[in-house]
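Give me the fold.
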Amino acid sequence: ITYIGSWAFGGCIKLDNVVIPESVRSLCGTFSGCTGLTNVTIPDSVIEIFSCTFLGCTNLTDVTIPSGVTFMYSGEWDAPFYGCENVVVTYKGKRYAYKNIESLYYDVPYRQMGAAGDGYKKYMIKMHGEHIDSEHMT
C-alpha cells in the first residue's frame, strides 16, 4: 500500500489510534471525521499529505509530520488539519497549535503538481501566523 485515499477510514468515530504502514507515501482525506482519533503515527515514508486528511478529527492532539514530507496541500476549508481545534503539529522541530497552523504550510516545501508536466503549482493557502514552541503552549 503506497496511498491511502479519501474516506478510507472516514467517519470511524471509535478509531482512536493509528499507525500508518511504512510503505505509505501519500495520504488524502484518509481520516476525515474520525472524531475519536487521538493519536496517529506517520512514518518517514510519507512524502505527501493532501486535503482533508484529518478533517474534523476534533480529539487529535499531537501529530509529528516526517521531515521528508515534500508537499502538503492547503486550501481555505480543506486543509489537512481543518477542524482539529486541539491539535499540535510538530514539523522539523517546530510546534504549531491549531490557532496558527497555517504557518506550518510556509515551512513545508511544495513541488510542481499537475498533469503532463503543465507546470501548474498546487494552490497554497495564504499563510499567516508564526510557529510556536513549548514555552508558548497552553
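Strands lie at 3-4, 17-19, 26-27, 39-41, 48-49, 62-65, 71-72, 88-91, 94-97.
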